[in-house]
Specification:
Elements: H1 4-28, E1 33-41, E2 44-45, E3 54-57, E4 60-68, E5 77-79, H2 81-87, H3 90-93, H4 96-104, E6 125-132, E7 136-141, E8 158-164
Parallel strand pairs: 1-4, 3-8
Antiparallel strand pairs: 1-2, 4-6, 5-7, 7-8
């Protein structure tokens, strides 16, 4: 009979090997194309308040597809951390998208050309495709608001987007 200690040790070893293999794949993956599919709900991605960290390499063509399983309209955009910091400021967030535009001094724009989805109504899907041509740490999130409602990013609907060289 196999001891419980052996089974636990085997499971831990298997998880470590899977983590190492995933890191090796990320570090040694040639630049090319990468795709992510995220499920949007109130107020997060992939059934969490928040979102997973997405990692790509400089020069990769990135496609992010948003499947809206929520009850509200959602969009997703890759922006700078400074833009997110403004969106997380309650004096800005409670002004909705208009308040964020005012704080920025212009309409909110994605950091990479094409790095924004169209709004997806409940049950709809929307995608963005862009080139990750600048290394750095960015964020993606839903900067949608409803009249009189705060920005979705303020409510936790954002995640990290890392472009690694």
């Amino acid at each position: 009979m196999v001891s419980r200690r052996f089974v636990v040790l085997f499971m831990v070893l298997a998880m470590v090997l899977l983590a190492v293999a995933g890191a090796y794949n990320m570090l040694n993956r040639p630049a090319g194309e990468v795709s992510f599919t995220l499920t949007a709900e109130e107020f997060g991605y992939n059934q969490s308040n928040g979102a997973p960290t997405l990692r790509v390499k400089v020069g990769e063509k990135v496609t992010i597809t948003i499947v809206n399983n929520g009850a509200e309209t959602h969009e997703t955009m890759v922006v700078t951390k400074e833009t997110l910091a403004l969106a997380l400021d309650p004096t800005v967030a409670y002004g909705g998208e208009e308040g964020l535009d005012k704080a920025l001094g212009h309409h909110i724009e994605p950091v990479f050309q094409g790095a924004a989805t169209d709004e997806a109504e409940p049950g709809e899907t929307s995608s963005m495709t862009f080139m990750a041509n600048q290394p750095g740490n960015y964020v993606y999130g839903c900067f949608t608001d409803e009249p009189g409602i705060i920005l979705h990013a303020f409510r936790g609907m954002w995640g990290e987007f890392r472009v690694e060289s």
